[in-house]
């Protein structure tokens, strides 16, 4: 059980790092960063899937579901803005 929670915290840390990177790339856009942006999005998606698959205890389940929902909405907005040319 302890190992699972340690892995969960590592994944949360990674999500935070991807969020920071994506925000940086959005705020400092250049055409040459397009591939880096796509890699950051892919890394975020992969890590989010790992977090989604985590089965938390009942004590934090509601918060976990809210976190997953919020992160999913955030990345979908970023992807949508990128798809319509508002971002890199």
Detailed description of the structure:
By secondary structure, the chain is mainly α. The chain is 77% helix and 0% strand. Helix 1 runs antiparallel to helix 2 and helix 2 runs antiparallel to helix 3. The protein is elongated.
Looking at this protein, list some descriptive labels.
88 residues; mainly alpha; 3 helices; 77% helix
Summarize the model shown.
With 88 residues, this protein is mainly α.
Summarize the main sheet: none
Rg to the nearest angstrom? 14 Å
Helicity, in percent?
over 70%
Structural class: mainly alpha
**Quaternary organization:** single chain
Write the element-wise H/E pattern from the N-terminal end onward.
Answer: HHH
Furnish the topology, listing elements before pairings.
Elements: H1 2-27, H2 34-52, H3 61-83
